[in-house]
């Protein structure tokens, strides 16, 4: 006894849903359901392809971010090594002000003192 029925939907003896008169199991709606599933699979393939390209773009962005972060870190180290501290800035200000104050004192001694001595008391 063979369960094989000739036709497109015939069962080759592997068990499962047998066909009757060449009709697929599940009735007339089987072809519509399979077509719907095939459509969904195509959408899924397209979405997976889009996801793959998005993941590749994100991977490239991550590499760019790593390079930029490394570059920024190197620049910050360079700035930190060559940055002027508050103490150094105070010393520079003092070394600049001393000659200016000394020059002003010299001007007062040279010009203003004789003028003040010449004034009547």
Main features:
single chain; 121 residues; 2 domains; disordered N terminus
Report on this model:
- The chain is mainly α and 121 residues long.
- The protein folds into two domains: 26-83; 84-121.
- Helices cover 71% and strands 0% of the residues.
- The chain is built from two helices and no strands.
- The chain has helices at 30-82, 86-118.
- The radius of gyration is 46 Å and the shape is rod-shaped.
Low-pLDDT stretches: 1-14
**What is the helical fraction, as a range of percent?**
over 70%
Q: Could you give a short account of the major beta sheet?
A: none
How many separate domains make up the residues?
2
What is the CA-CA span between the terminal residues?
148 Å
Number of helices: 2
Q: What is the average per-residue confidence, as pLDDT, rounded to a whole number?
A: 82
Give the helices and strands as they follow along the chain. Answer: HH
Shape: rod-shaped
- Give me the Rg, rounded: 46 Å
Strand content: under 5%
Strand-pairing-aware structural class: mainly alpha
- Give a count of the beta strands, DSSP E runs of length 2 or more: 0
Task: Give the topology, please.
Layout: H1 30-82, H2 86-118
In a few lines, what is going on in this structure?
This protein is mostly helical. The protein has two helices and no strands.
